[in-house]
Write a structure and sequence with these properties.
The protein has 108 residues and is an all-beta fold. It is 0% helix and 31% strand.
């Protein structure tokens, strides 16, 4: 039997002490793996991303550090060891999405 693959599962309310009302900023250390709501200051509506504990909250490609993060749903990764050669993907920067009016236009 080989090594177990990491599994992501939701943390039931009350199972862990997780503050959902706290806001976080770019470059702070992510305290809990889970789904975070991303709030940009001006250019974009809120959206959600999945982030892993002990990484840094990413910057935005357009507004840099003018974003904040709020935990929506904590998740626990059973086995975060990637020594078995598997690749881990880390989000370092939130991509800038094209606005609806820019679709199909080519910048010259």
């Amino acid at each position: 039997m080989g090594p177990r693959k990491p599994e992501l599962f939701l943390v039931k309310p009350g199972a862990a002490e997780v503050r959902r009302d706290q806001m976080y900023r770019t470059d702070e250390i992510i305290p809990h793996s889970g789904i975070y709501r991303v709030l940009h200051r001006q250019h974009r509506l809120p959206h959600e991303v999945t982030l892993l504990r002990d990484q840094q909250f990413p910057r935005c490609a357009k507004c840099a550090t003018a974003v904040s993060f709020e935990l929506v749903q904590a998740a626990q990764v059973e086995q975060e060891d990637v020594s078995d050669g598997r690749m881990r993907i880390v989000l370092y920067e939130l991509p800038e999405l094209e606005s609806e009016g820019d679709e199909g236009q080519i910048a010259v």
